[in-house]
Amino acid sequence: MTADTPIRILANASASRIIGRELTRRGFLSAAVAVGAVGALAACTPTSTGGSPQASGGPLENKLSIYTWGEYDAPEVMSAFTSELGPQIVIDSFSSNEELISKLVAAKGTSGYDIVVPTGTFIPQMVENGLLTKLNRDLIPNIEHMDSAFLGRDWDPNNDYSICKAWGTTGFVYDKSVITRELKTWNDFLDAAQNEASGKTSVLDDPGDITGIYFWANGIDWDTTDAGNLDAAEEYLVNTLAPHLAAFDSYPGGQSIPQATMTLMQVWNGDARIGILEGGEPDRWQWVLGAPVTEIWMDNWAIAAGAPNPEAAHAFINYVLTPENSLAELDYIGYHTGGTDIEQAANDAGFEMLDLVFFTPEQIATMRTGKVTEAQGRLVDIWNKMKAAAGA
Predict the structure, then answer these.
(1) Domain that holds residue 341
(2) Is the entire prediction scored with pTM above 0.85?
(3) Buried b / exposed e across 260-294, counting CB within 10 Å, b at 16+?
């Protein structure tokens, strides 16, 4: 993100909140992540730092350092933690998993950070290379307030190193005043991009999501490493789709939706919700969850290897998992925070457009978690060629 990226407003029935967009979360399979993070991990010598908890329930330290995605925590939760429990919170922001991983690798356990917030797919490699500390679950009893559906994910089956912070998915938004037919699938997206929305279509600035459109639309495993599949994806995306694209934009909710500068946009659900609410014309826009399949990503609370304030780190994670704090986090960031019964709480609080936050079991069953594979370099190459073909 750049310094002049516009702010976004998350509106709900009770209040409006301005959220700085300079380093807002994601970049899940960006070029830096796909290549840089893997390279950083490959160069890292595994250590035993994560072998045992470093906290035992003793007195809290007077400081807590959090390294996270920008504007990804409710200020009122931060200040309440300090008021109630004492530790002063210092927050630094990163813009990609690569940036997080590279800093931890270089520091070799001396980063000074306590809590970090990696995306799930990177956790196994981070654990293997000693970048995370094993949690003392006895100090996090409020995990009982988490919905079991968001625990025990394949990257950390026993939640030994991580607990869900927030999760989201990918779909698209279109302007119903321009596209008058109903769009339901990724194939519909691709067709409209070359017709009614030609020259007015944006895609996420992310190799995984861009190539995902082709794979999802054609029933191909998103994590394919098959050369034939990759060749076919490149041929279609570079030569057929790219000439119709107007922008590679990971945050269309900031300008493109509110200002109606685009007709069709691939977008993450929380950003779509923000843009539609901010634009003031909710009936103009239609959100579509990508079909027949799409992605699911999850960011996670974790504790860095060598964390100088492990007691405070455990206390904070436990604190933020209470139902009231989980709801406050959802209100601020616009993404599901994984709490049990949080959907009912959000409804009771009068939050708007919750169909872009909460999904049915049937919808969740269509979502796929991405993997970092040996094909990442090829995906980045396709992404770069698409940009060149689109004149971006």
Answers:
(1) 8-167+298-359
(2) no
(3) bebbbbbbbbbbbbbbbbbbeeeebbebbbbbebb
